[in-house]
From TrEMBL:
<dbReference type="InterPro" id="IPR006089">
    <property type="entry name" value="Acyl-CoA_DH_CS"/>
</dbReference>
<dbReference type="InterPro" id="IPR006091">
    <property type="entry name" value="Acyl-CoA_Oxase/DH_mid-dom"/>
</dbReference>
<dbReference type="InterPro" id="IPR046373">
    <property type="entry name" value="Acyl-CoA_Oxase/DH_mid-dom_sf"/>
</dbReference>
<keyword id="KW-0285">Flavoprotein</keyword>
<dbReference type="InterPro" id="IPR037069">
    <property type="entry name" value="AcylCoA_DH/ox_N_sf"/>
</dbReference>
<dbReference type="Pfam" id="PF00441">
    <property type="entry name" value="Acyl-CoA_dh_1"/>
</dbReference>
<dbReference type="Pfam" id="PF02771">
    <property type="entry name" value="Acyl-CoA_dh_N"/>
</dbReference>
<protein>
    <submittedName>
        <fullName>Acyl-CoA dehydrogenase</fullName>
    </submittedName>
</protein>
<feature type="domain" description="Acyl-CoA dehydrogenase/oxidase C-terminal">
    <location>
        <begin position="247"/>
        <end position="387"/>
    </location>
</feature>
<feature type="domain" description="Acyl-CoA oxidase/dehydrogenase middle">
    <location>
        <begin position="135"/>
        <end position="228"/>
    </location>
</feature>
<dbReference type="InterPro" id="IPR009100">
    <property type="entry name" value="AcylCoA_DH/oxidase_NM_dom_sf"/>
</dbReference>
<dbReference type="GO" id="GO:0006635">
    <property type="term" value="P:fatty acid beta-oxidation"/>
</dbReference>
<dbReference type="GO" id="GO:0050660">
    <property type="term" value="F:flavin adenine dinucleotide binding"/>
</dbReference>
<keyword id="KW-0274">FAD</keyword>
<dbReference type="InterPro" id="IPR036250">
    <property type="entry name" value="AcylCo_DH-like_C"/>
</dbReference>
<dbReference type="Pfam" id="PF02770">
    <property type="entry name" value="Acyl-CoA_dh_M"/>
</dbReference>
<comment type="similarity">
    <text>Belongs to the acyl-CoA dehydrogenase family.</text>
</comment>
Amino acid sequence: MSTKPDIDTSDFYSFEHLLADDDRALLHAVRDWTTADVAPIVNSHWEAATFPFDVIPGFAKLGLGGLPYKGYGCRGSSFLLDGMVAMELARTDSSIATFNGVHGGLAMGSIYLCGNDEQRERFLPDMARYDKIGAFGLTEPDVGSGASGGLGTTAERRGDTWILNGQKKWIGNATFSDLTIIWAKDVADGQVKGFVVENSSPGFTAEKQSHKIALRIVQNALITLDNVEVPEENRLQNANSFKDSAEVLRVTRAGVAWMAIGCARGAYENALRYACEREQFGRPIGSFQLVQDLLVRMLGNITSSLALCARLSALQDEGVAEDRHSSLAKAFCTVRMRETVGWARELMGGNGILLEHNVGRFVADAEAIYSYEGTREMNTLIVGRSLTGRGAFV
């Protein structure tokens, strides 16, 4: 298979040059690693629905765990670099990007944002080195968008121990992670609290979810908590309501918007290469007007999404980003992603559904990115509330 098209064909306005030289060097290192070590194996793992554990040392060597967090073994980089790395990973494979988003964003982010200093010191260095892998348990079998008020998983305090009962669904990494952040409703005050739960705890089981059509490399689990005992020292000390868990989601939702751009770029770049190589009627199909129109539409979606996310990252780095900013980015970029991967498949005709051409994998994976970290509709309501001052959630 030939190499990817030149970066300028998808970063048309050179957004990566917004990065400092050292950060841009790391981005290029991630690109070289994914091209050499990840891209050749993802289709076989996607088809088999297995996770390539051999890639985890690559994440550790590059130091990608908890990129924007300062101290505790984390690099303390900008949110712009963090977003562009998420995009770069998704540009090769959305499942690989999701693995790191769950571990380094949701799990490490919960501890960094909602834990106390002792908990950060205890958990984050091992996670930054990928010696311990994290998962994030919020969604439940009967609770998705309604997590703010309807969690069924309960936590009951008995002395210095909490007893957790319930189920969590769609929990990425949880079949093999070392620890999972579990969000549960305190039976005493009705507030949502967060817990660092060791997966080896008695009563904790994680059953792999199968028969997925998207993100097949991601190992999602149905978690059952049957009187799982968690010490008070593992309760996230600064997570005392759903608002605190929402702070984590605000940060990671921006990362999902970046992943959506990466998914779109991966599909576009494979379609562009195909258009330059595939010949019909005696010449490459890239020389035909309708094909070029599709390519430009895809590039326009990618570029507009890049501009939105670059500004969002700047707001994050300034410390002024709000829920409404992340929600607009997630809603907009995932819609543009869905259009883009569809146009890429259209350009390739029947070949677009074959794994060997990669685009079909991006088309399928886009469906999961479109829904997780808040559906388009829920994110629209968050933005709509900020515009009108009126909530329309029910």
